[in-house]
Amino acid sequence: MKVVKWIFIALVTAVSLFPFYVMIMMSTYYSENIFKGLPLSPSDYLTENLMTVFKTDFIRVYANSLTVSFAAGILGVLTSTLIGYAVAKFNFKLKSFLNYFIIITMMVPAQVGLIGYIIEMRHMGFGNTLMPVILIWSAWSFGAFFMVQYIRDTVPTEILECARIDGASEPRILFGIAMPLIKPGIATLSTLVFLWSWNNYLLPLVTINNAKSFTLPVFISTLGIVHRTDYGARMAALAMATLPVLIIFLLGSRTFIKGITAGAVKG
Amino acid sequence: MKGRNRSWLATAVSLALVLVMALTGCSGTNNSGSEGGKTTNSGEGTTTNTDGAPVTELEGTIKVWDWDEAFLTKMVPEFNKLYPKIKVEYTVVNNADYMQKLQSGIASGSDVPDVILGEMNYRGQLFDLDVLDNLEADPYNFSRDQLLDYLPSILSNSKGELVGVDQSITPAGLAYRRDLAKQYLGADDPEAVEAMLANWDAFIEKGKEVQEASGGEVTMFASFDDAYRVLREQNSKPYVDGTTVNLTDRLQKPLETVFKMRDAAILGKYEAYTPGWNASFAKGDNIFYPMAPWSAKWNIAANDKDGIGRWGLIPAPEGSYTYGGTSVGVYKGSKNKEAAWAYIQFAYMSDEGMTISYKEFGNMAGTKEFFEKHKDWIEAGTDYDKYFAGQNLNKTFIEEIVPTVKADPQTKYNAMVQTAYSSLYPLWMKDTSITVDAALEKLKSEVKNLAPEATIH
């Protein structure tokens, strides 16, 4: 039985890692040779592809993407946690309205509000900066919704009340007592924001008109175009762009899975 | 105690709510945006620098969205030698995303480039947005008579205004594999091959012979789409009148011919611009490919690196056509129209600009003057001629292909017809039981779905 299990695991691993493998192999090919067959063995064009990539502003773009994703992570998780904590653990006027409001905004596709959001950013003076791609996460309805559910399920109100009786201030209760309890949730949410903002294409495409502020996906789409698409160079750039996401996921995977499944079964 | 905490929280939450509201959309009516009014004075006047070359005093900042970064990094510094006071801010935009980015820019009132490029795929849609300035009016005062005769129709919007100049001309003929032509058609010399294929009937007959001789291995075109592209464009005529789209009149004949080719089994199995199609250039299972001047670099040299001396170029049977191409125009709302126009003139039409553009990028200006003035450039040939066994490609284009070029005026319906066709043709090429009439009816109904307001004939 164990053998079957391991074979199954090995199979699933191979299937999930195969695309990454092909991506890395593709990055060693001359673009036009990629499609002559399935590129399973490395070719000899990696240096040229890397040169195509590094000849451009790749490092700056990379730094932009990291800035955006980390800032988005911090901002998104912070606001979501605050909203989640408030809605889950306090009673106040319009609480249920706020709760529904979060759910309703979640149902509206992001594309619908796109033009409005660009106009808003322009009026705030953030045109052509990284701010529009970061700030979008400050009002992240999914994050808020997730945190409401998560905090409701994992933070016992009794603990908070104990702390209150012992005279702890509200900020201290949140940061000293509630936060440690919801770490897995925060890790999950951080991973999600990081992934989504790292891979975001549409928003940076329409809000950033300045090559200096390009993020990776937009930058990669402009690599080697003009009648021909340089897939080799793009694959090389993509391989490098995928790395941090993989690392983040590996680091956070344990808590990530915990966070995702938390609240699924009531203990 | 509890009550006090509550009120602290209530304040915090309401503050957070206000913040969230502010960030999600309900922006006020503050219209004093900082970016919209990025005006700089544009003064005129010319002085000369030490070399005696005129340096113009035109000032301002212009934004250019282009996908060809190599062109920009070369051209902008050259432009600035002559126009030191014009700052060119360029953004590299993938042509597949160009319209989306442009439309969001226009709709949101944020950044819109002063110089707008219209690739053939979305040109009709762009022209119908009505955001490009008429280049024959002030301050441009360009004249369509300066352009090659076939160009004004594809550079004009539906009002008939000339709204762009050509980035590089794109008259097209057929590229062919000399080795295969020699083996199956019995000749590889362009003149002989051209003489053999006086019309499409002769082409189809030859195709059948090739098909038989090669045991079905070698076909004339690599793709149904390649053949259709040639046939559709060479049968060019205006077919959109307001919201009336005369599809039957426009496409009956090209579709009949391409279906005849399909039934004669002389078309390859590839869909154009797929990886398989790209690889077929080097593989050698198809003789002919559509070819415009840019194809030498981007189709032939890129896909058939070892193909030196392997290719030939002839005009297509029954006339030439246009293949791809990009128009360059000025945004109506531009604050620096004169500077934008100076850039366009310099980069795409002037002697100084064309020296670089032609010699480094192979671009040919769409003006008559260019070809009168630079006969020697054309005579000298280009690097890509070696793929064509020394045949002078540009000379062939100018002398044999340009004279019979025809081209459609572009409206948004062109793009819709193309979208509908693209979704349908893979089935047409596979299922030989579909007749021309059935295909045309299907195409009409698809176009009708995309454009419910239009009358389709």
Automatic annotation (TrEMBL), chain A:
Domain (ABC transmembrane type-1) ranges: 62-252
GO cellular component assignments: plasma membrane
Pfam families membership: BPD_transp_1 (PF00528)
CDD domains named in the record: TM_PBP2 (cd06261)
Keyword Metal-binding recorded: no
Membrane spanning residue stretches: 7-30, 61-85, 97-119, 131-152, 173-196, 231-251
A GO biological process held by the record: transmembrane transport
Keywords from the named record: Cell membrane, Membrane, Transmembrane, Transmembrane helix, Transport
Location(s) in or outside the cell: Cell membrane
Membrane topology annotation: Multi-pass membrane protein
Cell membrane keyword on record: yes
Superkingdom of origin: Bacteria
Family stated for the protein in its record: Belongs to the binding-protein-dependent transport system permease family.
Protein name as it appears in the record: Carbohydrate ABC transporter permease
Organism: Paenibacillus soyae
UniProtKB/TrEMBL annotation, chain B:
Keywords (A to Z) from UniProt: Cell membrane, Lipoprotein, Membrane, Palmitate, Signal
Compositionally biased tracts (Low complexity): 30-52
Transmembrane segments: none
Keyword check for ATP-binding: no
Gene3D superfamilies given in the database record: Periplasmic binding protein-like II
Disordered: region residues: 30-54
The keyword Lipoprotein belongs to this UniProt entry's keyword annotation: yes
Pfam family, one: SBP_bac_1
First and last residue of the signal peptide: 1-32
PANTHER family in alphabetical order: ARABINOSE-BINDING PROTEIN-RELATED, POLYGALACTURONAN_RHAMNOGALACTURONAN-BINDING PROTEIN YTCQ
Protein name according to UniProt: Extracellular solute-binding protein
